[in-house]
Amino acid sequence: MTGRALYFTGPRTVSVREKPIPDPGADELLVRTERSAISPGTELLVYRDQVPDGMSTDETIEPLDGTLSYPLQYGYSAVGRVTDVGDSVAEEWLDRRVFAFHPHESHFVAEPQQVVPTTLTPQQAVLIPNLEAAVNFVMDARPRIGARVAVLGQGPVGLLTTALLAEFPLAELVTADCYGKRRSLSRSLGASSALPPDELSGAVEDTDITFELSGNPNALDDALDITGYAGQVIVGSWYGTKDVSLDLGGEYHRSHVRMQSSQVSRLDPAHADRWDKDRRMEFVRSWLSETDLSAVVTHQFGIDRAAEGYQLLENSPDEAVQVAFTYE
After folding, report:
1. Tell me, what DSSP letter sits at residue 49?
2. Could you tell me the maximum CA-CA distance found in the chain, to the nearest angstrom?
3. What kind and span of H or E run contains 276?
4. Residue 226 in contact with residue 252, Cβ under 8 Å?
5. What confidence tens digit (pLDDT) does each residue in 141-185 have?
């Protein structure tokens, strides 16, 4: 028997190749993938060849070893069942559903500490990485009671950030996105208003916290413009090789606005007294189990039709939000 694995082979080109199903080593599990999800942020940068040449994938995730150079396997949201275990692994792992930060492929091996057992459905569990990022953004922002908050960008991670913030007693939660479907989803998840980006100016000002999650470098200027004196801008976007040009010659100089990067691979040391990755992941799983986010996953394709999934996100972002692959 052979499995299937997705490879990025060039700009805007992917292929699904047959690959031998590996045998688990003595300390490993064999997982048969049920569902995996595209990251429409980082992963689309890889798809479009918008990442710096030779940049390492992610040194904190062992399966993503190497550099972001074609051809490569990439992706970090896989959910499946354990179908075999090595001699040194307890048989109680058999048939357990697990989540893993792993590229798109039908079968993979991993050590037990590299997977997360879950009772979530595959549809819920593929949202773990983006929700973990959203939790990290909100933790770094530390919203206060009565805060005025804006979230720019309502892709999957932006929508999940909005849903988390909607549970806080905020004075206002405004979101912005180019696409009407995403604005509608944003309102359904708790935004007090959702605007096209070109309507932000004049409609929104003096926010306490602004999240820039759009992936569009131009939105960072918008974030700075609407943030009030001594407010905070949380930059969760990764722009890859896209140029970032900021207008810092006007009000910014006197604004005392704090601009902070926030990325999920590591926790800010400011949280280290009480939080670690395990505690954050525990919260992510618990919150997913209690929250209906089914509307966020808008499209599913069999892995053999993977190219269609990327083309849909590339050409019809007004239709697609979260795209997932199935494995039969």
Report:
1. T
2. 65
3. none
4. no
5. 999 999 999 999 999 999 999 999 999 999 999 999 999 999 999
What is the distance between the alpha carbons of residues 111 and 244, in angstroms, rounded to a whole number? 40
**Is residue 67 scored above 90 in pLDDT?**
no
Q: Where are the alpha helices (DSSP H) in 194-305?
A: 200-203, 218-226, 252-255, 277-290
Cα(155)–Cα(320) distance, rounded to whole angstroms? 9
Question: Cα angle at 130 between 127 and 134, to 5 degrees?
Answer: 125
The three-state secondary structure class of 73 is coil
Q: Buried b / exposed e across 202-237, counting CB within 10 Å, b at 16+? A: eebeebbbbbbbbbbbebbbbbbbbbbeebbbbbbb
Q: Model's pTM, two decimal places?
A: 0.93
Contact 27, 111 (CB under 8 A): yes
H or E stretch covering 82 = strand 78-85
Q: What is the DSSP string of 129-162?
A: HHHHHHHHHHHHH-PPTT-EEEEE--SHHHHHHH
Token digits of residue 213 = 């999650």
pLDDT of residue 63: 65
Query: What φ, ψ does residue 252 adopt, rounded to 5°?
Result: -55, -40
Q: In this structure, what is the dihedral angle of CA atoms 132, 136, 138, 141, given to the nearest 10 degrees?
A: -170
Q: How far apart are CA 302 and CA 138, in angstroms?
A: 34
Supply angle C-alpha 159, 164, 200, rounded to 5: 50
Query: Which single residue is written with the structure tokens 């670690």?
Result: 276
Measured CA to CA, the distance from residue 226 to residue 138 in angstroms comes to 18
